[in-house]
Design a protein that fits this description.
This protein is mainly alpha-helical. Helices cover about 70% and strands about 5% of the residues. A hairpin with a 2-residue loop joins strand 2 and strand 3. The longest helix is centred in the middle third of the chain and has 49 residues. It is globular.
Length: about 450
């Protein structure tokens, strides 16, 4: 391992790329602690220290921003607008034929889709920053905590001050997007994925320290050991795939022979990644959001449906909440896999280039066979996603941790996935130059 690190340092190009990536990551983390204009930073810090972390979608957004959301920094929105915009563009490919045509055009079409993603990101950043400033102005950002400091988070709440805050947060989102593209072009790995990795990793020390303080050193060691086991299992499942063999018939083009090779179609157990977890969290947050806007006036009794939502759909440690969360993840996994992997297109491309699966006729039978395999391999993948996503909720009920529990949910899935992909890229570049990878 140390020899591999030495080879990285001795390779000028790789050393420069890793150094550039680390510099961008440092700037990103610095921006997460720079407060937006007209924010009472001492009051915000006092609220964070005295109140528990909010649940639901707000907790997820705060996790992806590395804690910058609740600090109302210039990078408060983090990468969430870009993630949402990317998912929207993927879904629009199913609804709008023009988007699907652009996707199939190659590099030119992909560039146009990327441009559309940028526009949607800025629009979402405007919407989310306006909502965040409005909630902070009303004193409800940290929920009904009853803490006086949380009711006065802004030093100036006139319209032009709020407009400046919205513009600053939107510009911060644009800057994050530029950082990510710079890392992708000049650094190592996918820029946006690495920034998400950085945001989540930044919350690990605080989460582990909170467990140590609240439950003692023994529980800290138990959680750490459980985390190592979970990471190993996640790595095993993320690397698992079903390989469907494909043979290509020989064909003559002029005097040259093409085809006659054997390959395979890799179908991962978890093809949907972390998207179903984000979908399920967003959908479960909607009832709580509706109930929050229908709170009774002083002296009035709340409506029965508001009480039911507050009792059952806002508590992450409630069994009904866990069951709905698990079922939504399973359903969204099938939905997202059906959108991103089209067996008919794969079968048509194989038939076009003379490929076939041994024992399966080309064309429609191949598409039906691929759909058969995909449906059955998605079931264990969806159950795996649901169980991993439930780990923070189980920890919330047993250990007393918050929903940012480090070894579970979206955090561990993203960190393991990004870590594996980045190590593979470094390994590939080392093999190009030294004929020896990062790991032997």
């Amino acid at each position: 391992m140390f020899s591999a690190i030495a080879r990285i340092i001795r390779t000028p190009d790789l050393r420069r790329k890793i150094g550039f990536t680390l510099a961008i990551v440092a700037l990103y983390r610095l921006g997460a602690h720079v407060p937006t204009p007209f924010v009472d930073f001492p009051n915000v810090q006092s609220c964070i220290a005295q109140s528990s972390t909010t649940e639901g979608l707000l907790s997820l957004v705060n996790l992806f921003s590395g804690g910058a959301l609740l600090q109302l920094s210039i990078f408060a929105l983090g990468v969430m607008p870009y993630i949402t915009a990317t998912i929207i563009v993927q879904l629009l490919r199913v609804v709008i034929p023009h988007f699907e045509t652009l996707y199939k055009e190659g590099q030119t079409g992909q560039a146009k889709l990327t441009q559309y993603t940028r526009y949607i990101t800025i629009a979402l950043a405007l919407l989310q920053s306006t909502t965040l400033v409005t909630v902070a102005r009303s004193g409800q950002l940290f929920g009904a905590t009853g803490i006086p400091e949380c009711q006065q988070l802004l030093t100036n709440d006139v319209w032009w001050a709020q407009l400046l805050m919205i513009i600053t947060m939107t510009a911060g989102t644009g800057l994050i997007m530029w950082f990510a593209e710079l890392v992708t072009e000049r650094g190592i790995g996918n820029g946006m994925s690495l920034l998400i990795f950085t945001s989540i990793a930044a919350t690990f020390p605080g989460a582990m320290w909170a467990i140590w303080q609240s439950r003692g050193f023994e529980m800290f060691l138990l959680v750490l050991a459980l985390g190592i086991v979970v990471i190993g299992l996640v790595v095993f499942v993320e690397q698992s795939q079903r390989r469907i063999p494909v043979q290509y018939a020989k064909r003559m083009v002029g005097r040259r022979t093409y085809g006659g090779t054997n390959t395979y179609i890799p179908i991962k157990v978890n093809m949907a990644g972390v998207v179903p977890v984000i979908f399920a969290s967003s959908l479960l947050y909607i009832p709580a959001l509706i109930a929050q806007f229908n709170q009774p006036q002083v002296g009035e009794e709340p409506a029965l449906w508001v009480v039911w939502i507050n009792n059952y759909l806002t508590r992450g440690d409630h069994p009904l909440y866990m069951l709905l969360y698990f079922l939504l993840i399973v359903g969204f996994t099938y939905f997202y896999v059906a959108i991103t992997f089209n067996p008919v297109d794969v079968a048509d491309n194989m038939k076009k280039y003379g490929g076939f699966i041994p024992g399966i006729r080309a064309g429609r039978p191949t598409a039906e066979y691929l759909d058969y395999v995909l449906t059955r391999i998605t079931l264990p993948g969806s159950i795996y996603l649901g169980l991993v996503a439930l780990l923070p909720l189980i920890a919330l009920a047993t250990v007393g941790a918050n929903q940012n529990f480090p070894f579970g949910g979206a955090s561990i899935l993203i960190m393991v996935g990004v870590g594996l992909e980045t190590v593979k890229q470094i390994d590939a570049q080392l093999q190009q130059r030294h004929y020896e990878g990062l790991l032997r």
